[in-house]
Amino acid sequence: GVDLDVKAINVASNLLTLSALSYKRHGICFPSFINTNLKRGNALVIPMEPDSLQDFATAHRASIKKLIKLRSQLRDPSLDRANWRKLHIKVESLTDSVRRAQVVAVFGELFPGDDRKILLERVNRVGYFLYEIEFPEVFFNQDGTCKNDPGFDVILGNPPWEEPAAEFKQFLPEFDPEYAELSGNASEKREEELLSKPMIVRR
Question: Which of 72, 123, 125 is nearest to 101 (CA)?
């Protein structure tokens, strides 16, 4: 599960925890949901082109293979809390290194004047979520290669509750600082120009 609001993650975790009480055997470590199967992120900003999964697997195969193994160990109910935390730190560190590399590779062309640090700060302000590395077992085999039929079996979500147009003045200045000062026809014309670019639309 993914949500930008940490409160939603906590609510989902509590509901799953209560449900798990019905089948948890005595002496078995309680399953961990937060940061393992429930994660915080902007699920609408995905630094991955639909047809680039194979290239991604080739570039990060060793990390993907290791992450799948580590995440499998995280789900071991007999793992004590101290060792779970050590393992989780390894998983998050490896995941973060791949996330950063992918953000630079995908968004670098949108902000050619930014160095790596500034680019990462800019994208982090908006938020993003790289499903392929957050849930690698959904997309890749244990050896880090692409699955024949990668992806989720079912996706559930809720639509945005606000009109997208209301957000343009907050969103589009990221790509054109002068846009915030425009109004009327000039603003609408610049919106059309900016939204004609595929990389901006994906964000």
Answer: 123
